Amino acid sequence: MSTQYENLIRILGNDIPGERKTLVGLTQIRGIGYMFANAMLQILKINPDTRIGTLSEEEVSSIEKMIQDPKSQNFPIWFLNRQKDIETGDDMHLVTSDIAFQIRNDVEREKGVFSWRGYRHMYGLKVRGQRTRCSGRKGGAVGVAKGGKILPARGGAGAPAAVDAATADTPATADAATAKTDAPATAKTDAPATAKTDAPAAAKKE
To answer: How far is CA 113 from CA 37, 108, 127, in A?
Structure first.
């Protein structure tokens, strides 16, 4: 361990503050978990409680080499996150942006072969057998909106009353219609009759 202290340590393109412990600082690299970092430090014989800013350049380079090729240092294969790759058949450990790139390729391959997992990915559904009835929903909440007026149901208790009111109004409208038709008829028939009968009588008397 060197006596020189660095405020920032760069490992595989990741900037790690120097005041972090070595075990905690390595977990900031995507693809490196707590157990993976602990096993790696045990193999390299580096104290996990030391500050990562106090590591020497040789120790930092050895950590990078082990992360890039863990099998070269007799690292347990069951620790790797990419075992028996479908294209190469090799056991490897993916870190940083390689993880997202490989996941994207796997999803596109599933869609290309039209597998069941590919269909689930295409429609945005859960792939690993989770429930979809009560959880995993998208969009707004399901329910009745507040503040709305309640309308009577069709064919319910209010329907006969509406029908009775309509039938009760029909005679009144019929009587009004007959009254309208009768009034002009009486006016037309009575007025000319009186005029014709009175006029000749007055003329004869004169």
So the answer is: 37, 9, 16
- C-alpha R_g of the chain: 46
pLDDT at 117: 94
Core vs surface per residue 81-120: b (16+ CB within 10 A) or e? ebeeeeeeeebbbbbeeeeeebeeeeeeebeeeeeeebeb
The residue type of 84 is: K
**How many whole angstroms from its chain centre is CA 147?**
26
Query: How confident is the model at residue 185, as a pLDDT?
Result: 46
Is the CA virtual torsion 150, 151, 153, 157 positive or negative? positive
Quote the pLDDT of residue 88. 87
**Distance (Å, rounded) from C-alpha 37 to C-alpha 197?**
128
Has residue 168 got a pLDDT over 60?
no
Task: Classify each residue of 1-37 as buried b or exposed e, where b means 16 or more C-beta atoms within 10 Å of its C-beta.
Answer: eeeeebeebebeeeebeeebebbebbbebebbeeebb
**Residue 50: how many other CB atoms lie within 10 Å:** 15
Q: Which domains are assigned to the chain?
A: 8-79 (1.10.8.50)
Mean pLDDT of 153-163: 56
List C-alpha distances in Å: 81 to 60, 64, 121.
22, 17, 21
